[in-house]
Design a protein that fits this description.
139 residues, alpha+beta, 5 helices, 29% strand
């Protein structure tokens, strides 16, 4: 217990910063001294998902880390990745069109219900494919 209090050093920072931003799985292991269970959903509108999470889980968020970039077209900052550390050993990563929920194995039902709630923000791609995509009607 005391080594956590006085010895909070990251032995290999390169593992924590593996991509363009922090690796949430490594951050979870560093923060909670255990590997996470993960629930994942993609193809969602992350702006709406972010608002939903802040509305429903805002009181449980202890820390937020964000990777923001300036968008010249809109003239404002937009987030690329947001990592939220929640109480009870839970973490949420929101990225471009995806959400990853990291949790303890005994919190599987909570994570699955959160993912089911976020599925309401699914992005449906209506654009025609580019290239040689086969259409069932043409075969």
């Amino acid at each position: 217990m005391l080594y956590r209090l006085f010895g909070r050093r990251i032995a290999q920072p390169s593992a924590l910063f593996g991509g363009p931003y922090m690796e949430s799985r490594v951050l979870y292991a560093q923060e909670f001294d255990a590997p996470p269970s993960i629930a994942f959903i993609n193809n969602i509108d992350t702006a709406k998902a972010h608002a939903f999470i802040l509305d429903r889980l805002g009181i449980f968020i202890e820390t937020t880390y964000e990777y923001n970039v300036f968008d010249h077209e809109t003239g404002s900052m937009s987030y690329v990745t947001t990592i939220m550390i929640l109480c009870d050993r839970r973490m949420i990563e929101l990225g471009t069109n995806y959400c990853e929920v990291l949790h303890d194995p005994d919190q599987r039902q909570w994570a699955n219900s959160l993912i089911m709630s976020l599925s309401a923000y699914r992005i449906i791609n209506t654009a025609a494919p580019i290239g040689f995509a086969r259409q069932a009607a043409e075969n």
